[in-house]
Write a structure and sequence with these properties.
Elements (H helix, E strand, L loop, with lengths): L1 H38 L8 E6 L2 E2 L10 E2 H14 L1 E2 L2 H9 L7 E8 L3 H12 L5 E4 L10 H11 L4 E3 L7 E3 L3 H16 L3 H15 L10 H9 L3 E4 L12 H19 L5 E3 L11 H9 L4 E3 L25 H11 L11
Parallel strand pairs: 1-5, 2-3, 4-5, 5-6, 6-9, 10-11
Antiparallel strand pairs: 7-8
Helix pairs in contact: 1-11, 2-4, 5-6, 5-7
This protein binds zinc ion (ZN).
Zinc ion binds next to strand 5.
Length: 350
């Protein structure tokens, strides 16, 4: 009896504590909203915050610690819907050019074309009445797999305690624990990333062969991409095979950019107006001449992965994007606030 009344009292205390934490959290978020209104710019020259995502996982994945899962994406979208003004990029871009953006204007973007964008992201976006732009690498539709995913998925399922890649000069890795597997895949990806595209593909395929059955349903099918588009989501270009453009001959870069645009336009029967550079760092992943290639292909604007926010004086061919990695709404919003100061122009570091 005593124990029962103690438990009831304890439950009541806990729920009171939860309630006051919730009140405190919403007070903090309301305060941050006021600061965001100021930070996003007063008068006509307002700033546009563009978030970048890749995947929305079912549950947290030790092999992909940088990706959000359904639970995190849910509170992040609820936060954006409540405290910001989320626009489609085409609407935001028009408003940016005419100095008529609302305060706290935000766009949501996804790169690559993962199937979980349709299964997991779209229902959450719809629930919050939000829209997003999805940049698609068209060469991986219908069962394709990006080379980095081949490495991640292969290392994940390897039953051994050690991964010996010394015969292909990629080293020796202990892979007994999940943390070791994640570190091994990360290290291999760093070593492969800037190799010649053919060699990068060959080596990643070799690693996948060592593991056996690696999944081939990570990316969207053409049917799923059509559904994504029909759900009111905007589709953008992201090359055919997601190469490091800076490593390609000019004619191949033109082909990657142009063929991707044409394939998506044919499939969706609509004009593809915006582009995102694969990997997205100027001077490392793409060069100034690729900006001309993107313009010539008929695009209207392009995104990099440089951190920052967009203003009317930003380079519309290298728009900055950023997503906070924080695990709580208040910290996430606070980091967005700090990013409003970052409107640096793109430049190649000498
Ligand atoms: Zn990408």
């Amino acid at each position: 009896m005593i124990l029962r009344s103690f438990l009831i009292k304890n439950d009541a205390l806990q729920s009171e504590k939860r309630h006051s934490t919730m009140i405190l959290d919403s007070m903090i978020l309301a305060g941050l909203k006021g600061l965001a209104t100021l930070a996003s710019g007063l008068g006509k020259q307002k700033k546009l915050f563009v978030l970048i995502y890749h995947r929305v996982l079912d549950v947290p994945d030790f092999m992909r610690p940088g990706e959000v899962d359904i639970q995190a994406f849910s509170w992040q979208m609820a936060l954006l819907a409540k405290y910001f003004n989320v626009l489609s990029f085409s609407e935001a871009f028009e408003k940016l050019k005419t100095n008529s953006l609302p305060a706290r204007a935000v766009c949501i973007t996804f790169d690559d074309g993962y199937a979980d964008n349709l299964h997991n992201a779209v229902p959450i976006l719809k629930k919050n009445n939000l829209t997003a732009t999805f940049f698609i690498a068209s060469g991986y539709l219908d069962g394709g797999r990006m080379w980095n995913d081949s490495v991640i998925e292969a290392v994940r399922i390897m039953p051994k305690t050690e991964l010996d890649l010394t015969n292909i000069e990629l080293g020796l890795y202990p892979i007994t624990t999940p943390a070791q597997k994640e570190a091994a895949a990360r290290d291999i990806i760093i070593k492969l990333k800037y190799l010649e595209p053919k060699q990068r593909l060959r080596l990643s395929q070799k690693i996948a062969e060592l593991a056996g059955a690696v999944p081939d349903n990570l990316m969207l099918t053409t049917g799923q991409l059509i559904q994504l588009h029909q759900q009111g989501m905007e589709i953008g270009g992201h090359t055919v095979t997601h190469p490091i453009l800076a490593k390609l001959a000019p004619n191949l870069a033109l082909q990657e950019i142009g063929d991707n645009k044409k394939a998506l336009e044919k499939l969706l029967n609509t004009e593809i107006r915006y582009f995102a550079y694969p990997n997205g760092k100027l001077g490392k992943d793409y060069m100034p001449e690729h900006i001309d290639t993107v313009k010539k292909a008929g695009y209207q604007a392009a995104f990099s992965t440089q951190c920052g926010v967009v203003t009317v004086s930003s380079d519309f061919w290298q728009l900055a994007r950023f997503t906070p990695w924080d695990k709580t709404p208040a910290r996430f919003m606070f980091r967005m606030l700090t990013m409003y100061r970052n409107t640096a122009k793109n430049s190649i570091k000498q």
